[in-house]
Amino acid sequence: MTRILGIDPGSQRTGVxxxxxxxxxxxxxxxxxxxxxxxxxxxxxxLRRLLDGLGALIDEYRPDEAAIxxxxxxxxxxxxxxxxxxxxxxxxxxxxxxxxxxxxxxxEVKLAVVGTGGAEKAQVQHMVAAMLGLSGRLQADAADAxxxxxxxxxxxxxxxxxxxxxREAWSRK
Amino acid sequence: MTRILGIDPGSQRTGVxxxxxxxxxxxxxxxxxxxxxxxxxxxxxxLRRLLDGLGALIDEYRPDEAAIxxxxxxxxxxxxxxxxxxxxxxxxxxxxxxxxxxxxxxxEVKLAVVGTGGAEKAQVQHMVAAMLGLSGRLQADAADAxxxxxxxxxxxxxxxxxxxxxREAWSRK
Lengths: 173, 173
Description:
homodimer; Nucleotidyltransferase, domain 5; 49% helix
């Protein structure tokens, strides 16, 4: 059994999703939540909330591996910078705890979860809930985090079937 | 005596500069270097090198406060994202060690160090070396890091003269 932490970083809210996968790639829902970064204090305090919040979840749930969504940067450089800072803090929380971290493009996540790289956000939310047997509407950031965790589970299982060392899946740039 | 850590974050190289300032605002050079992030491994390993490298310097030199340059984002969103990630990791290293961190715009740094917000990079390097009594040409990223530390020293001394709590200088932004 491998526990996977999925992260969908954002400068206002960071989605976190944790699943367990067995040797065949079958997934079980463990936890999901959105860490809200806004509130008191300046930019450093906001990053600290992410670093501490994500760190506390890692310490509580003890995942074996982490997966993070490659963010969409077709926005302004200012938004990209803020998003990058949140990503940098999220990755810091993960590497500080020695978790291997893989990165997946939004298109790969949609392909793995819905079956088409051009899927809508609502389809991702629907499929994530269906795959993990969750009822009710999932918060969007948490759904994306669970989706990237499911993508990593899928890639791991495929790599295993093909006899490729899991390590190679991890070191994807 | 207050020890200030200045940081000029970059996705390939991060400048670090450490100075001591006395109650009158007079500065003494302690250390400077550029942390090189490129090399082995993917993006997460690169951020880890920054997180670990900066953390080791903080543990060795034990600064009291940190100052970071607000980066110029008039580039592509992709560059801004990478720069943001480096900034996020640098700020993580600092807040993990409970250092208060202030942020200064490039224009404020030039104004404090050279006396004009539109100063050239070479002028900043020259003035930083002169203010700290350093001979020889300073590496550009380290010079920028020392410049932001000197700016923070200047702002602190001014705040003190005006009777404003140093805390207010810290919580800028």
